[in-house]
Amino acid sequence: MTTRTRRTALSLIVALVALWLCGAATAATMVALQGGEVELLFPIEGEENTVVAPFSIDIVPVSNADFLAFLGTHPEWQRSKVPEVFAGQGYLRAWPADLDLGELDPNAPVTDVSWFAAAAYCEARGGRLPTEAEWEFVANAGFNAPRGRDEVGYNERVLTLTANRRPNPGPVGRGEANYYGVKDMHGLVWEWVFDIGSSFNTGDSRSDGDRRLQLVCGGGSAGAVDKSDYAAFLRYAFRSGLDGDYSSSGLGFRCAG
Amino acid sequence: MTTKVKFATVYKAILTMSVTLLLAFLLAACGEREPAAVAPSPQPAAAHAEHAAAVDHAEHAVVEHAVADHAVADHAVVDHDAHADHPETLAAAEMPGSSLFHLTGAFTAQDGTEFRLAELSGNPTVVVMFYGDCTTACPLLVKSAQDIEAALSPEVAARTQFLMVSFDTARDTPDKLRAYADEKGLDKDRWHWLIGSPLLTRQLATLLGVQFRDAGNGVFAHSNIVTVLDSAGVPTARLEGLGVALDPALAAITAAVD
User: Fold this and answer.
1) Which residue range forms the structural domain that includes residue B172?
2) B81 and B107 assigned to the same domain
């Protein structure tokens, strides 16, 4: 009887450990979100809010190790092989060789990647880059509430995270999870989004109206919905100036699906 | 006593089996959960074709490089079914690094067939991005392409190709684009009216420096750009805005034919 009880208890423990291992192994990649309304920093005529459909997003940015594995199976994206239309001179510049991370931390977010390479990585994984609206939907969440602006100290906190990024960003996943369980949206690197080159504020227009003007002109931030959300202003301004072959040591990405 | 022993054995067996089953179930759940979580939102089948070709312009012949990680491995960089009138399709190894032909994804043309940029190799091309429901700027963009064709010498015009690529991957269809082209008398040889996957469309726009955004109500904001590609797919002229002089485009096309 005692043996049986012990055995039962043991089985239960084994099962629980298995369940925990299983959870740890799989729950760590993406979270599924219901989507909803996103308040755009620069509302577009007739588009005060954008509605985002349900989607999934990576909990952490793509790491050097992840990208190295991708280059092993997709050699066309290795630094010595990628055509210049898809990646400029700075592409993976800190890598000593095509498949060598050198001194880089395998767990740090991959940076110095072009938009084309980031999009190809996500596609190879069966996903895609998050749209700007999806990314902002996640980034606008607080740490305890779905709407960061409702949280005391949110703007200051995000701005501090954004401003205090290190030149060599540390391992992914160390940041505090936000309301949706997503990490490192602000503290590590800038991130590519799917719809670069969409900073427009006019419809089917004969004039090339351009939201960039609002972003780069002095006093342009007067058009922003929430003038205190300076971190968001920085994000929009940074993204609006990017070309697809550009890369920088402070720019990485994560995937959505 | 014997019965009790037997009972204990059976009980043990059942317990072991249950635990095994539970573990197996958990493992199976583990295996299934990840792909399910990563499952992308539904996309047109064309989205998968973009990975067909591994572009290695370094040293290998293209045909050897028809390698891909996906099921579409038979679509090499160079489409072997390329139109007979474009026999000089460049191998990836010969492509300049700045050639747009490195973009290997398959578009769908107005006749429903697949179309890859590399099929344009050997002759100059005028590229315009537009969309079918666009009533203001797009007709003028299409008109620019028409005006370019009309202003070329007949010999040069006969070799110039026109690529009209839709932004509206959700609403435009091959039939719709064919009707659009037909209405303008432009459903004809050398005029390719294309739709791609959302990614392929964004990739091409990014390569061309064309900005666009889906305003969500069937309207796209977009920049008005006409690009000329030389016979190797390298952009050699760019008209920005509407109603601008066509001369730079005409010169680039003529140079590409000479």
Assistant:
1) 100-257
2) no
